[in-house]
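Let's practice the habit of predicting before peeking. Look at the sequence and jot down your guess about where helices and strands might fall. Then scroll down.
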Amino acid sequence: MAFILLFSLNINAQNMVVIGTVSNDQNQKIVGAEVKLGQQNSKTNSKGAFSFKLTKFPAQLTIKHALYKEYIDVVRVPLLNQKDTIFLDVILENNVTELEEVTVNSSRVIWAYQKPHTHIIDFALMDDEILLLCSENHQYFLRRLDSLSQKMTDLPIKKNPQNLYEDCTGEIHLVYTDSLFELKLFGKSTILSTGYPYVQAMEILSPCVISNANNFIVKALGPHKKLVKYTTIDRNTKQTELLYITSDREQMRGLDDYAKANDIPVPLANPNYKYSPPIASGLTDRQKWQNQQFYRQILSKELYTPIFEINDSLVIFDHFTDSALVFKPNGDFVRSFQISYHYFENWKNELIVNEEKTKIYAKYETDGLVTLREIDPSTGKVLNTTLLEKHIHPLSIQIRNNNAFYIYKHYLDDSIHYLYKQALKH
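Done guessing? Here is the structure:
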């Protein structure tokens, strides 16, 4: 079992020079390609070259040319770099023809459930089935679909359900605002257990994030949700052992002062905190109230360091330290590697693992359109990129058999959500 504590590796450099050349797969230099690095823009010259001076890394590099596919990557300063210049050699791929694009786009997005009068509230992928939480004519159902998306069974439920929740053991629960019901599936039968108060049930269920044959792995948050700690619990002995911990200590200190100055009760506050007044003296009650709302909505967002089961390994993606860490199922540390996909523009602080637990995708959104980048879970490199091209603001994206399933809220009828799927590039 390993206990690991990491800190940020982001680098602020002094006038670091980035020099690059852009060519095609025949080693011909590409002239006039549009190049963007961070917030700076340029074009390749007659020799296919570009250069920038930059002080903040990592930075997104985007290269566009009408005859070639768009190139997107992240430029980092090598950890052992002793020079003030970074050299890049970029090769662009030829663009596909317009006819090929039309052919692909016309068939890639399809209905996953073709019932135009069924409102999809939520769904869950289960082996080769789909479980729908839906309504028709003001009646609510838990509906099971087979591998061909045909209805198998309907279980009527009381009105106004909120969503479906999957716990760390893979059990599905039906959620209402005040209660939670566990689902039991026996053959083609669906049974709801006795309901439990929502708050008490989630206090028990939500800390557990991974469950395997030998251990439970539970997550705890520290001050202001800027510290994340994972602990393993042995199923047999009930003994606990710290697996991993990471934190943004600088931000925690700043939020300590902010909370104290604005009378914000913080259950996760640092017990060793020492307040140094005055931080924001003279604030009115209204200003404090506004600052309290800002804290709850923005400042106290959780440090995103998720853990997943992927290909029989446990992988923690620590975006604060730009690192991914691989563990055996028993918690033994294997190795770590650097990640940078989260520096691409418009990342939504979300990773999605497919149902088979073999692939992982990072989610990006621009003007409502979502892009999924497949990330190699062993290297952190981007493998493929797919735009969910037909619908804006897709909800509850889930992936199975190389298809992205999602809910689309119809723009003309606020009472109807549909279920679609789109094939992903591979």
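How did you do? The longest helix spans residues 285-299.
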